[in-house]
Amino acid sequence: MKRSVLAIWFFLAVWALGLGIPLSQAQPFPNRPIQLIISNVAGAQSDVTGRILAEEMEKILGVKIVVINKPGGSGTLGTDAVARSRKDGYTIGYSSAGGIVYARVMNPEAVPYDPDKDLEHFGLHLFFPNVVVVQASSPWKNFGELVDYAKKNPDKIRVGTIGQGSIDSFNLEITQALTGARFTHVPFKGGESVTTALLGGHIEVAYDVFSKYLPHVQARKIRILLITKKRSEFPDVPTLTELGYKQELPSVWMALFGPAGLPEEVKKVFVAAFEKAVKDPESKSKIEEMGNIVEYKSPSEFRKIMIEDYERAVSIAKQMGWRKP
After folding, report:
1. pTM for the structure as a whole
2. Which of 52, 148, 169, 298 has the greatest number of C-beta atoms within 10 Å?
3. What is the per-residue pLDDT for 232?
């Protein structure tokens, strides 16, 4: 009996090799570790949520997912690495609206890929509400006071963001255009650098994600002046339209994707695994406890959001004079 089984396996091996197909590829996908490129530094909120997602997908797919951080260019470096990767499903990416939408609006020459043509989207994972924050000891008790001071003292207030071309830098530009206030933009390279600079007094204001500052707000070290999505635990913190302005500031979202041109069976595996991982109650709870909003969107739903966000951002950029009509 053993000899018969061995003979069958030997025949299959010879047959696969004769066709030029490695045995590992003859097995169902996936059959070896997958590389997940996160377009931010280790320790950043998107890195933490990406790793939680990766852990859950490991259980579903049954293979190791190796996380590689590739920050820079407001998410464009990591995103480009995925777009240029082999179309075999063993390199995927976790990136934000910054690298997929807003960098293309603010710095189109620095984005070498077309997210709709060069990437295969597996769906949207979550939203990061964005906030405008100051130290708790700051003289500005609300957003109106900050704007008034910035109007009377143009360029005196230093505002930190995670980088030029990020959604935060875009929100800063919208704020200046809508309010008439003028700030000095101080771009950082992501992660906790903006928070460290704010707490250290190297900048007076930060535009960043809500979840990053929640522990510091609870410790009474930081005050939130403005938020892009209402939070029940902070009912008195307004959004921009609640203050009477004509448009809202956008929020960051995170999505999972791979290079365009993946085999159909690989796409089906990832889409199913991603949806199951996002909806897992335990991982969802972990992420939402950090102040984020987990909200699964299918590939088609996400593509619609991505296109609408881009078109809206381009329209705003043209209105503000940042791009030619």
Report:
1. 0.79
2. 169
3. 86
